[in-house]
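Q: What does the predicted 3D structure of FZ domain-containing protein look like?
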Amino acid sequence: MIAIALLLFSFTNAFACKISGYESGTCSYRYLPTTYKNSTVKERQARKLALAQWKNGTKGGPCEDGEGEHCMSFCGKYIANYYPPCVPNVESIEADRNFPDGRWKSFNVKTKDRWIEQETIRIIEERIAIETNKTARKLGIDEFGNKGKTKRRFHKNRACQEAYRKYMCWINFPRCDEDEESLPMCQSVCLNFFRTCGYEEDLWMCDDLIDNQVSSEPHERDPSYDFVGAPFKKNEYGRRKKPLEVCTPSIKGSASNFQISKLVTSLGFALSIILIIA
Ligand SMILES: *[C@@H]1O[C@H](CO)[C@@H](O)[C@H](O)[C@H]1NC(C)=O
Ligand SMILES: *[C@@H]1O[C@H](CO)[C@@H](O)[C@H](O)[C@H]1NC(C)=O
Ligand SMILES: *[C@@H]1O[C@H](CO)[C@@H](O)[C@H](O)[C@H]1NC(C)=O
């Protein structure tokens, strides 16, 4: 966690977009189909076009059969024609005292996408191994060694796994707004993850809102208690419940109607599954 804090402070310029809140990137429009925001084109068709482009490149670009450095074959499907994402700058960041070799040199869209894919798969598999631990079950203990059973959240729960994949992709390729700045994670994405994965409501950690922080400064924040993606932005809607572009991803159908009641303070459970990404 110390490394994260250092990174957070080393990128305080407000220009351009940022990935996971700290890694400077660049807004990419190259894979949005020409039908982007054209309301006469059916959603399904636009989506299909976009998917092919994320997978297969476009306009003679270097993404070919998923192998070019601009291919986003894992996360592309969650971004589709929905928004222009913030992607890594291929240029390296200059070396400094903390990073004598510089940073992110090799992180192009493809390597980042692959990394997210591998991490996501690994973490899901790890969670399933913990949830289906026969030894622990026989001993009658849960993952923390307490009496009981480890709750199965990811095991045989495709919706939970999918919610987690989306979380990972959206946090790592956030939405760019019209000023080419990245937008914070929508609260609905966080709520959706906790709900879909069957976390009890008092364990949800989606209450840390940007909007709250403005009004309650100075706000003592212990970064080790933050859920990755926090502080979140509350979703906003226009006419006919159309999501306004205020957060990542701001797409129709990604919202959750659930209310959150309590501010969560306990961290006594394995949230490392997501914290690890920071
Ligand atoms: C929107 O799409 C339609 C049908 O493909 C096309 O005729 C029209 O020119 C497009 N409008 C814009 C503003 O691109
Ligand atoms: C990707 O491109 C290759 C060769 O251009 C083509 O054969 C393949 O069908 C394309 N795949 C998709 C998903 O568009
Ligand atoms: C399974 O549970 C046992 C007993 O609590 C523990 O020693 C072991 O590390 C666990 N394995 C996994 C994969 O979590």
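A (community wiki): The structure tokens above were generated from the sequence. The longest helix spans residues 109-131. The chain is about 35% helix and 5% strand.
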